[in-house]
Design a protein that fits this description.
This protein is 39% helix and 18% strand. With 363 residues, the protein is α/β, with parallel strands linked by helices. It is built from 14 helices and 13 strands. One of its GO terms (cellular component) is periplasmic space.
Amino acid sequence: MNNRRHFIKGLLLAATVLLPAFSYAEDVPAEVRFAYAGGPRTWILGKIDKSFDKAFGTPVKWIPFGSGSDVLTLFAAKEIDIARFGSSPAAAGIARKLPIEVIGTPEIIATSERLIARNGLTTFKGLEGKTVAYPPNSTAQYAFEVGTKLAKADRSKINVLTLKPAEIVAAWKRGDIDAAYVWGPFTQQLEADGGKEIFATRELQKHGVLIFNNFVVRKEFAAKYPELVTKFLRVAQDKVDQYKKDREGSAQQIAQHLNIPLETVRSTLSGLQYPSDACLYRHRQRQERLAHRDLVQGHRQLPGRDRRDPQARSAGILRPGDQYHLPAASCSHQVRQAWLVNLNGYSRPRQVGQRQGWLPGDK
């Protein structure tokens, strides 16, 4: 009898100890809804081999979208949890007080987004009196507007159409437009049909303007599943590293998965810059001079201090409470990824001056 009593007590004790573990294991959503545009990116490697699903312990629902406006609508309707899209629509979403926040910057746009025009058009001023298309509320639109101002072209004389990327290609083939600012693989499709590059987003960097892609999360999702956010960024980092180690093999996998030409994938992936912490450090003083300029006010490099953790797995990881800077063009040779968050634990935004900052702060 005593042995039986001890056995029952042991079972109750084991159940008490294991219950929190079982409860924690169940604390994951039925699925993680990730929104993405269709172009070649390094994170697609994680979609191919299901690394994200394995890390989360729950399936990923992949939701395609056509433009920045689309993804903001999806966030507003709570139909997605995480998304990868450009700095311009992200800035617009935060300015409109959508309950979202930036958790990482995987890529700075260099030559992956370009202005393609018909023969005979070679400058922004040459577009006066012509029809130009770009995706609405996108990084391409922002680059076009800034490029037009820098070239001192008369914007009022340029007829603009806002079209989704696939619609741009169709309009080009019909002869409805004379030029388009868009990203790969659509730029390559325009070039294959006679288009010529007259401008690339990278050219804005010498004027201090950086345009980039973000990982963005719903605040409610991040608060409920902070570990999933951290796991997401870890897998995304792993896929950047995988691409860096084997660019050709990675490009082949992505080309096959997306069913687009290999050269298009090579060109698009190489047209992105992958920032590193070492690069960020070299540009610290310049960033501090821009301390009161944030993304909403012009996509300029961000302020902050630079304290690096030598124990961090990646050169692009800072301690909780640190802030990141975005690098200038000379950083493109770096081989490590820089994130806007500390991958050892997701952290919330903190105040930058008197304004709510984009960057993660203390836990």
